Amino acid sequence: YPSTVTKQTKMKQYIGNGCVVELPAIVESKHSLIESKIGFQENENKDDAFFVFDLGDIVHKYANWVHRLPRVKPFYAVKCNDDHAVLKILADLGASFDCASKAEIQKILNLDVDPSRIIYANPCKQTSFIKYSASKNVRTMTFDNEAELYKIKTVFPSARLVLRILPPSDFKVQCELGMKFGCHPKKASNLLSIAKSLGLDVVGVSFHVGSGCEDAQAFAVAIEKARDVFDLACNLGFNMELLDIGGGYPGHDTGNGAVTFQEMADVINTSLEKYFPEADGVKVIAEPGRYFAASALSLAVNVIAKRVVSRDRKGKDNLPEQSPGASDEPAMMYYINDGVYGSFNCLLYDHAAVTTSPVQEQDTDLNYTSSIWGPTCDGLDCILEECQLPELGIGDWLYFDNMGAYTVAAGSTFNGMPRPRNFYYCQADIWYRLYPETACKVERSMKTVPQMKAGRQLLETADPDIEKHGHSPIETCL
Ligand code: PLP
User: For 82-288, which CATH superfamily applies?
Assistant: First the structure.
């Protein structure tokens, strides 16, 4: 695959934790990058499944967030995708973080993020994790039940508490959270009184409308309810200063009439203006996960095995006589090297739906009914029960876009199946806008993009981390 991309992918930057980011001058398409990585792996005699991370996509998403929701500070939900590069880019962009556990807090603090940029947004926390958060001065945390208040009183009485309320339940969401978390607004008064009697410091209200929310009005209703609870708390004498509007934003525009981020942002801005006008000085934050991570990752998988069956027998080779009228047309079963125990755990946990296409251009319009299966020995490991694909051979590649949210984070190595490799890239002009100090004097491959040179500082030396990890400064630039 000697594509233009491989020729241009000359510059690299090491960002710690084993992540090397390639900085192509121009990225023709994610597809061409996948092709170049297949070629790269072939040279290494490898056929591993792999992710390509477009870190520039995260930068665009961040800029879009700031543009559309200027009042709402994003606290990225680490659980969604805790890959080092994703967290590092977001930290360097200025994002804050929603952590659910001690390990997530550690990860973020290791990036030199100030503890005030973390919300411990898990209403049911392990006591030792609360102690850890106290020891690290991570003070803001959510609660939604009485027992949590007593726990916090014992181990971290000076915590800044945020009451998580139940979101409205009459809006469609991909993953509902209300059955597990959230205090009913009608019970908020009681809970707040207990917090008051314990001398705890309640500073805000949060909610999560549900992940993959399909109706922007869910935010309008939830913000109105949050206002009621805010007023209750103010009347009890709490100094309420924080509204946390949670997660639930779309990860990509599907273009099929589904709610867009812009529509959601418009509804949120209108509701904030109505119920939390800027002049009141309430700080508004959110906990987006999917929004930042989903579209940044594409997954390429190798067809490792194949079975041709009769279409209406769907892979059951030993079926008894077919029913009359059933089709004997061939149908394909493809086995690929990632599955529901790996990155496609999103099918189970995130109620995701995925689509796929072949990487290689096909010279036929003939499609076959096909099913796609993961590599483990479990019959549950089915990725697509039925899709239309041209005939593929062993060793061919398929790719799946929008695979960054709730995929890698929960993948296992069940059956000894390795997790996919990671390849990181970021279009060079985006990178150098974010890290002007990493630009260096070797610019041969950047001549085609003269505007990138403007405003860029040219330095001889590179990140000191590189020395530690054995990459010389010159490798950073070439
Ligand atoms: N905040 C909390 C407390 C969550 O549980 C989740 C997801 O489950 C998120 C934020 C992120 O949600 P999303 O990825 O839908 O933005």
Answer: Alanine racemase (3.20.20.10)
Residues of the chain where predicted confidence (pLDDT) is lower than 50: 1-9, 320, 441-478
Choose, from 19, 183, 377, 382, the residue flagged as catalytic.
377
Whole-angstrom distance, CA of residue 359 vs CA of residue 398: 5
Contact 185, 225 (CB under 8 A): yes
Pocket test for ligand 1, best of 86, 171, 287, 350 (most atoms within 8 A of CB): 287
Quote the CA–CA distance of 6 and 114 in Å, as a whole number. 38
The rounded Å distance from CA 237 to ligand 1 centre is 30
Residue 247 Cβ inside 6 Å of ligand 1? The answer reads: yes
Q: Does residue 477 have an active-site annotation?
A: no
Measured in Å, residue 37 CA sits from the centre of ligand 1 at: 32
Q: Indicate if the alpha-carbon torsion angle 180, 181, 182, 187 is positive or negative.
A: positive
Ligand 1 site-directed mutation target among 208, 209, 402, most atoms within 8 Å of CB: 208
Q: Are strands 20-22 and 12-14 parallel, antiparallel or unpaired?
A: antiparallel
Mean of per-residue pLDDT scores for the chain: 88
* Amino acid 429: pLDDT: 93
- The pTM is what? 0.89
Domain boundaries of the chain, sorted by first residue: 82-288
State which ligand 1 atom lies nearest to the alpha carbon of 80.
Answer: 14
What pLDDT, in 10s, does the model give residues 183-209? 999 999 999 999 999 999 999 999 999
